[in-house]
Predict the structure.
Amino acid sequence: MTRILKCLVLIASIVFLGLPSTPGFAQSVPELLTPKTPLTPQINGPKVYGVRPGHPFLYRIPCTGTRPMHFSVKNLPASLKVDELSGIISGNAPAEKGEFVVTIEAANSMGKTARTFKIVVGDKLGLTPQMGWNGWYTLYDHPTDSDIRKAADAMIASGMADYGYQFVDIDDAWARKPGSTDAELGGQVRDEAGNILPNVRFPSMPSLTQYIHSLGLKAGIYSGPGPLTCAKFEASYRHEDADAHQFNKWGFDLLKYDMCSYRNLVKEGNLDDLQKPYKLMGSLLKELDRDIVLNMCQYGEGDVWKWGRQVGGTSWRTTGDLGLAVGDSLPGFYSVGLANAALDAYAGPGGWNDPDYILIGTVGDANNRTAPPKATSLTPEEQYSYMSMWSLMASPLLFSGDMAKLDDFTLNILCNSEVIDIDQDLLGKQGKILRKTSLELILAKPLEDGSIAVGLFNLGKAPRTISVDWKEIEKRGRMQVRDVWRQKDLGKFDDTFGTAVPAHGVVLVKVEPARRKL
Ligand code: GLA
């Protein structure tokens, strides 16, 4: 080939195939497995929603497709209304307990769709795991009102909210810091009546939550049962009642309650001591006139998964901080995920094991909190594994990377509607470990439609073929297999399914009995 011809072939291959991974070239663009979002309407996210009788109700219908979209809801209880253009359902839940099966309809210039949605008025909140964003791993000790508003805006603008992401959660460092000489953080930590005060970076909590609610999203706040939070800001010890009421008055919908300095107040390993502050906060939140879900953050102490639900937790962290987890041959999220995976028996509607946030995209370094956030060091394959594992485990899906720097690859990981469907499935079962060796992990999650989601994880450094036998998932005969990330049917398989899985990667499939041809 002449030099000119070689050059033309190279340019053409770059245009059509992406950059080659030859030394001297930038790394090839990671493969986006999630198909492009259809322009036709598609309703995503949970199919069920729990609310207490008579309490304020807010739900932005997660729906992808070209805007403008026109929404309507059939059989909506009279105390609720839907905004036709935004798809935000608001009002007060019916005063009596009961189940309300409604049909959400969405139409745009390209077509229309409908989906059944169940509103369950009762005691249980969090009938599916929470989805949203938490500021800790990008903002650390310096969140501001404006950062949180921008994150909420980005949740809408990026399309994440159209897939079901809903919570916008402030983490530590919004309160005042006892003894701090920093003009922005110091000063009196509570007013004369004992009400907790935000620092000057949060001029008005009610206005912040109102803003978040105006977008149809929910707002989360953070405190702890000790005198101080982990970052040494004011927390709720001996002010639990005042704080629960203040968070409610401010309009928050979620409280992350972080044990931290409470540890210094109690004897190691005493279960009563561990349960007491969560019982207290859990019962205070239950008495409020608005729903606030309780995310217990005490790193799995005293086997919290066994009692978290009883003390009023909607989710409970099962391990230490994922951002600090170090792996040996595998990145830290695998060890956190594996520890959490063993706890499948304890998760279900209203109470979820929480293995911590999804740290991908542009994210800060927990060991060097003042350093600017940077691109994750996880490979694309590891990121597919991370999101697959979390979804198979029915974990809360809380992204904690930088919302201002969401790139196509990160959104392809976070926003695959079929992967999210596995996480949000109505049955609310956490996937079980079917196989765990040094090289392979298989997790299987039964779904409401009778199918089973199976994740074939390669824990090794080289690609390998991984197979699952139908016996292992308690099925027989001919089964239909769908590749969930690619949203593509792979065909019908007898007795077993095997596939090549990339190093540290996953193949996530949905397996269901093959339908007979009519
Ligand atoms: C603990 C929690 C983190 C975060 C920080 C805030 O480490 O586990 O998720 O909330 O505190 O200080």
